[in-house]
Every structure is written in C-alpha cells, then in structure tokens.
Amino acid sequence: MTDDIYDKAKNYAYRVLGYRARSEKELRNKILEKGYSRKATNSVIAELKREGLINDKKFGQHWIKTRLENNARSLLVIKRELLLKGIDKEIVESLLDDFNQDFDEEKVVRRLIDSRMRVVRGLDPEKVKHRLYGFLKRRGFSSQIILKILSDVLNETC
Fold first, then answer.
1. What is the total count of domains within the chain?
2. CATH label of the domain that carries residue 93
3. How confident is residue 99, by pLDDT bands cut at 50, 70 and 90?
4. pLDDT of 4 strictly over 90
5. Are residues 26 and 86 in contact, defined by beta-carbon separation less than 8 angstroms?
6. Are residues 42 and 83 both part of a single domain?
7. Domain range for residue 145?
8. By three-state DSSP, how is residue 153 classified?
C-alpha cells in the first residue's frame, strides 16, 4: 500500500465523519465501498481509533441521547439500530442500562402524542386514535402503553 492511497482513504474518512459521527463498522464499510483496499481501510480505522475519532461507546451514547431527545423511539428500536450499525451487543446493553434508569416510556409517548395532536386536530376521534397509534407503533412503543396513554389523552381532550 502506498502512502498516497492511505492518505486518500484517510481524507475520505475525514469527509465522511464530517457529516456525522459513525460507528467503526459504518465507516469501515463506507471506505471499502469507495474502493479502497482492506489493508488501507484497516490502517485508516486503526489511526482514527488512536486519534479518538472512532469510538463505538461514545457513538452509542450520542445516538441514544439524540434519538430520545430529537426523534423519539423506544429503547428496543434504538437497540436494534445500534446493533445494525455494528456496535457490540455488550456495549449496547450496557449503554441502554444506563439510559433505562432515567427513561420514562410513558412520558415520551405522551410528549409525542402532544406534539402530534396539532396534525390530527379536527379529525374524527376514531381516526385520531388510529393515526396516533400507528405513529407510535412505528417508533417501537408497546401497544399496552400506547393504548393507555392514548386513552388518557383523548379523554382529557374530549
């Protein structure tokens, strides 16, 4: 492997990381898909790990925090996302255990319903319930919690 190829692969990795943080697996796949050799890719990944630019634990923490704050999902969906991104199962479970202590699924579901009510306001109550249920179910929340909170919220607004 020449230094030129290594430098190009590393510069490509920096560009990719400039858009958003990536897991090691995601970045490795991106570099390989771009056509760089395994040897160059492994060297770049090792260097970026030494520089602290790739850290699956920090990536996972950030992913969970962002998902819960900005684009709420259930912890089950977040776990699946992290595993698909190549984060080690033990790291994922450890991170989720830390977040699970402060995670109130009912509070998150209620917040999502409140924010979504503007979109469905004025519709038939059955249609509102159906749309909100589907919206929350697609985000991985359990039917039991969705129906409980929906019932509470719809009773409050009617």
1. 3
2. 1.10.10
3. confident
4. no
5. yes
6. no
7. 105-157
8. helix
Same-domain status, 76 and 60:
yes
Report the C-alpha gap between 42 and 35 in whole angstroms.
Answer: 13
Phi-psi region of 20 (alpha: psi -120 to 50; beta: other; left: phi over 0): beta
- Taking CB atoms within 8 Å and a gap of at least 24, the contacts of 138-147 are 139/72, 139/73, 139/74, 139/77, 139/112, 140/73, 140/74, 140/76, 140/77, 140/78, 140/80, 141/74, 141/105, 141/108, 141/109, 142/74, 142/105, 145/105, 145/106, 145/109, 146/109
Q: Token pair for residue 10?
A: 């590393």
pTM of the model: 0.82
Sign of the dihedral defined by the CA atoms of residues 136, 137, 143, 145, in that order: negative
| In the block, residue with structure tokens 């009510």 | 117
- Report pLDDT digits (tens) over 52-67: 999 999 999 999 988 8
Measure the CA–CA gap between 41 and 10, rounded to whole angstroms: 8
Same domain, 150 and 110: yes
The radius of gyration of the chain from alpha carbons, rounded to an integer in Å, stands at 21
